Amino acid sequence: MTALDHPARHADGPERPPERVPFPVVDEVSRHCLQEEEPETVHIEVHLPGTPDPARLKAAFTEALRRHPRILMREARGPWYRRRYEWELTAEPDVEVVTFPAPERDALKKARIRSLSQAPPLSASPPIRLEVIASGGGDSAASGGDSDSVETSAPVGDTAPAGTDTPAGPGQPASSSVLFLTINHTALDGPACLRVLATAAELYGEQDNSPAAPPLRTPSSTAPESTEPVSDAPSSWAPPARVSRGTPEPSPGNGMLVAELPVPRRPRGAPFTVNDQLMVATALMITHWNREHGARPRPFRITMPVDDRPRDMDMPIGNGTRLVEVPFSAAELTSEEWGPEDIGLLLRRTSERTRALKALPRPQLGRGAAMLTSPVLPVTLRAALTRGLRRAAAPWTSTTLLSNIGRVPYSLDFGDAGRAHAVWFSAPARLPRGLTVTTASTAGRLHVALRWSKTLLSSGDGAHLRDLFEHYLHATEHTEHTEEGTKP
Question: Where are the domains of the chain?
Fold first, then answer.
């Protein structure tokens, strides 16, 4: 039984100590490699047309924490020679989780900066915080933006262009708001916290918030899944390409840019999925960027989280995704002119690889990480060993990470505050990758977050990468399938 499956139990009385749960593999490896300069945070921002009532929202979110008790935990103290880190489960939050910061200029921009630079402490339960940023009409970055423009917001630290607020419905407050969740990634991931927020929305709005059924796939896109690696996949032993250095910023930490795009059209009957289109767009974005910066062609590997958990109330809370690496050979990415036929071929190859990789049984971080976290040595010695191996393995770390949340399965209807019309996520972007792409779709729109290490890229670099991503994502819609007359 893993920690994710472990039933949460709390102290029944003042003399009984809280239940403790050993750190699972993902949590321990993350705990070993923490850095103050680049905190391991996940950010989620949920845009609402109205502003929820503070007292009701706090009550609803606190009750949602109780209904998902695995989130109510803190790191237990222990001697240096202990063999495991342990989570200590608590009956109630140790801190005030929900806050309503006073309105101020650029409030959303400052909330994003806090999310990238200030991780909720592991020593207090729960290791998340929820800020409600009231935007009104003055904070354009908090709105859904003009549906004809991809520049719905700007890089952190820049001023966002004017946007268009979503009008409030009857009986809703005039000002819009953003629910801003910051998660310590050592303890939890984005989908788990989104499940908790969905429960809070149901309690607040008194509306059914059951997850929607996943979209049906056409027969050609649901071909039998092989448990064998694809034969033409490039070797995983070659060091992959790195994202070329742009114009680094003097301060450490992460930068971020969010954008809203149309969900890419997928030709009817095509063997690939929207996730494959996002994967190809990411690969071609970085290939183009590296070519502009004089890097020689090298193989690519893109890390892709796979989440097999249910989305209902029984969803295990914690770090529940497993990581697979999708490879691309240097020869596959050398073309400078990507026509419909070339992109169609790359999409089909990518589809075969992602389908096979998803079907392969594999521990969350691989068998090596499972061995490394075996409780044989004290955690302090394992931490030093893990950090050393991480530095040694840096040349073989994947080029980037693409985390596609997919269609947000919950309505996130907050009653008088309205239903969410945009949801953005972002994942940590420490070197050696230095760049992550996180996507989700809500209300028929694709919400993209590019996050980067400031020691690698600047805000201007992020804006250029966003433009490249949009260009190549649009190009995946115009493959040989559409040219042959297949309707999208």
Answer: 26-483
Nearby residues of 256 by Cβ (< 8 Å), 6 or more positions away? 43, 112, 116, 155, 156, 426, 449, 450, 451, 452, 462
Rg (C-alpha) for the chain, rounded Å, is 22
Which amino acid is residue 465, in one-letter code?
L
DSSP label of 357: H
- End-to-end, the C-alpha distance of the chain in Å comes to 45
* Contact (Cβ atoms closer than 8 angstroms) between residue 487 and residue 268: yes
pLDDT range class, residue 252, cuts 50, 70, 90: confident
**Closest by CA position to 61, among listed 97, 108, 26:** 97
| Residue of 56, 160, 63, 74 whose CA lies nearest to 112 | 160
Amino acid letter, 172: Q
Q: How far is CA 207 from CA 204, 233, 411, 416, 419, in A?
A: 8, 47, 9, 11, 11
Superfamily of domain 26-483: Nonribosomal peptide synthetase, condensation domain (3.30.559.30)
Which residues, in sequence order, are CB contacts of 171 under 8 Å at separation 6+?
Answer: 416
- Enter the pTM of the model: 0.86
Per-residue model confidence (pLDDT) at position 240: 94
Cβ atoms 341, 484 nearer than 8 A: no
- The three-state DSSP-derived secondary structure of 30-62 is HHHCCCCCCCCEEEEEEEECCCCCHHHHHHHHH
**Cα atoms found within 13 Å of the Cα of residue 372, Cβ hemisphere only:** 23
Contact (Cβ atoms closer than 8 angstroms) between residue 335 and residue 346: no
- Pairing mode, strands 435-442 and 422-426: unpaired
Is residue 336 within 8 Å of 294, Cβ to Cβ?
A: no
Residue 262, beta-bridge partner list: 445
C-alpha to C-alpha distance for 471 and 1, rounded to whole angstroms: 45
Sequence-separated (6 or more) residues with CB below 8 Å from residue 118: 39, 41, 182
Classify 6 as helix, strand or coil.
coil
Buried b (16+ CB within 10 A) or exposed e, 317-331: bbbbbbbbbbbbbbe
pLDDT tens digit sequence for 292-307: 999 999 999 999 999 9
Structure tokens at 486: 């297949």
Count of Cβ atoms closer than 10 Å to residue 163 Cβ: 21
Residue 78's Cβ-side half-sphere holds a number of Cα atoms within 13 Å equal to: 17
User: Is the CB of residue 109 less than 8 Å from the CB of residue 141?
Assistant: yes
Side-chain half-sphere exposure of 136, counting CA atoms within 13 A = 7
Mean pLDDT for the chain?
84
Q: What is the token pair recorded at 313?
A: 């109330």
